[in-house]
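Technical annex, item 7. During the second reporting period the consortium partners agreed on a shared format for inverse folding records so that results from different sites could be compared directly. Each record opens with the tokenized structure and is followed by the designed sequence. A conforming record, contributed by the partner at site C, is shown below for reference.
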């Protein structure tokens, strides 16, 4: 009985000690787990900080190397510069100090400078290669810079000179070289003009040789086109070189809350660059008649072109630009015969606010034109052409194009063209159908890749349907490269 009473307290003591051991083991295990967790977290933090330090060191090294290369390039270029560009900055304690600014690779190459005047220079080359089922590709493609033959076509080799003349004027000249199918090189002064910079009342004067501001496409150069060739209506109404001539233009930026500008141009009306006006058409017949009315004799022999353009922001991501144009002048079919061309254009663009490098985007551009050509009386040539009566010839045309910049540097496009006469002319009933007035239409899908802002590669297919001739298929691969920074173009 006594032994039993002694064993009961001993068992209680042993059980208590066992519980304390288990508690201590659990506490030790928890401490060990917490220690391991904290150690892992600290290791992750250390690894993250180490990685950030490595990236920062690499970035600083790359920036230092880039800065060093830019400085070396600027120093090398400044050796060939007549003088460095300067800017005025505030000096410590008041006054001003002059600092020399370095050249950036994204800036134009300045080849001459005299005080505030300077001249930039650039060179742009546009070349196409391809084939067509047409036997008369020169009649199929109406533009002078369009692909003209199977194989290779040097479409445009353009040198651009632009710069500030003085505080009052800036100037620009575009000298173009082309190589014809016979391998002969031609050169022309496509544009050479000055513009005022400081006229009051939002006025500006432009004078010299320049593209007429009619519609959206005519004032632009081939390398800015979204397709490998120009629209049919531009070729039929303005000829292969576009509407341009020597003259002067006055513009007024109206004081409205949106962009709104009026233009009025006066130019010479003769030559191949005034195709629908006093053009001799190289001594051949045009609309069945010879055209030769000599040079300008009075104010009535000039070409007058009013134009109006306005732009509206429909939203943060959408812009609409609309314009109307007209051109009035004499033509070469008779002493009192005139030509009138009317046009309307529309441009819409969508680009989201978070677009990167201009992509993605969608744009839509359309131009419609109508030409009324007063053809004079032709007494006839007994040996070749019968007499023709005076008549008014009315033709119209339209093109519409959509571009989709679906990813950076990639743009898909689709254009539709249509041109037609409003009626059969009297001279056509006598001489037969005139292909220069025949109805025709074209569908052109293309795909353009821009490796950089200084180059592009474009693949285009044309489906042409000409009334009286039939269907032709053409495929063109176009390549462009630019040396130097080109002068800016309109939106």
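Designed sequence (site C submission):
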């Amino acid at each position: 009985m006594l032994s039993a009473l002694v064993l009961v307290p001993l068992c209680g003591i042993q059980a208590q000690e066992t519980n304390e051991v288990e508690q201590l083991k659990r506490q030790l295990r928890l401490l060990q787990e917490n220690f391991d967790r904290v150690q892992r977290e600290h290791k992750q933090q250390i690894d993250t900080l180490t990685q950030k330090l490595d990236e920062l060191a690499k970035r600083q090294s790359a920036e230092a190397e880039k800065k060093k290369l830019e400085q070396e390039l600027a120093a090398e270029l400044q050796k060939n510069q007549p003088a460095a560009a300067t800017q005025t900055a505030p000096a410590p304690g008041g006054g001003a100090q002059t600092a020399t600014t370095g050249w950036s690779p994204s800036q134009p190459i300045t080849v001459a400078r005299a005080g505030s005047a300077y001249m930039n220079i650039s060179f742009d080359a546009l070349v196409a290669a391809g084939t067509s089922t047409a036997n008369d590709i020169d009649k199929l493609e109406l533009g002078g810079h369009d692909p003209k033959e199977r194989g290779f076509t040097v479409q445009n080799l353009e040198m651009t000179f632009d710069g500030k003349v003085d505080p009052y004027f800036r100037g620009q000249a575009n000298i173009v070289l082309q190589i014809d199918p016979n391998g002969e090189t031609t050169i022309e002064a496509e544009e050479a003009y000055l513009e005022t910079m400081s006229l009051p009342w939002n006025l500006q004067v432009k004078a010299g040789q320049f593209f007429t501001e009619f519609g959206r496409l005519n004032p632009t150069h081939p390398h800015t086109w979204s397709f490998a060739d120009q629209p049919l209506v531009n070729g039929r109404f303005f000829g292969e070189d576009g509407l341009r001539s020597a003259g002067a233009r006055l513009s007024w930026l109206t004081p409205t809350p949106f962009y709104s500008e009026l233009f009025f141009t006066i130019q010479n009306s003769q030559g191949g660059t005034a195709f629908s006006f006093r053009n001799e058409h190289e001594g051949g017949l045009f609309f069945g008649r010879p055209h030769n009315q000599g040079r300008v004799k009075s104010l009535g022999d000039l070409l007058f072109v009013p134009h109006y353009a306005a732009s509206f922001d429909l939203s943060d991501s959408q812009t609409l630009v609309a314009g109307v144009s007209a051109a009035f002048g004499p033509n070469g079919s008779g002493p009192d015969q005139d030509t009138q061309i009317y046009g309307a254009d529309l441009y819409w663009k969508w680009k989201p606010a978070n677009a990167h490098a201009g992509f993605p985007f969608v744009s839509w551009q359309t131009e419609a034109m109508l030409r009324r050509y007063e053809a004079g009386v032709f007494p006839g040539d007994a040996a070749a052409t019968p007499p023709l009566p005076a008549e008014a010839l009315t033709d119209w045309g339209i093109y519409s194009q959509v571009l989709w910049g679906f990813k950076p540097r990639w743009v898909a496009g689709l254009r539709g063209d249509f041109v037609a006469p409003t009626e059969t002319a009297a001279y056509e009933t006598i001489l037969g159908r005139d292909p220069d007035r025949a109805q025709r239409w074209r569908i052109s899908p293309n795909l353009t890749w821009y490796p950089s802002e200084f180059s592009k590669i474009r693949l285009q297919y044309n489906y042409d349907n000409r009334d009286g001739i039939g269907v032709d298929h053409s495929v063109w691969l176009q390549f462009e490269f630019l040396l130097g920074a080109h002068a800016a173009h309109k939106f």
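Residues 268 and 297 are 11 Å apart (CA to CA). The longest strand covers residues 391-407. All partners now use this format for quarterly exchanges.
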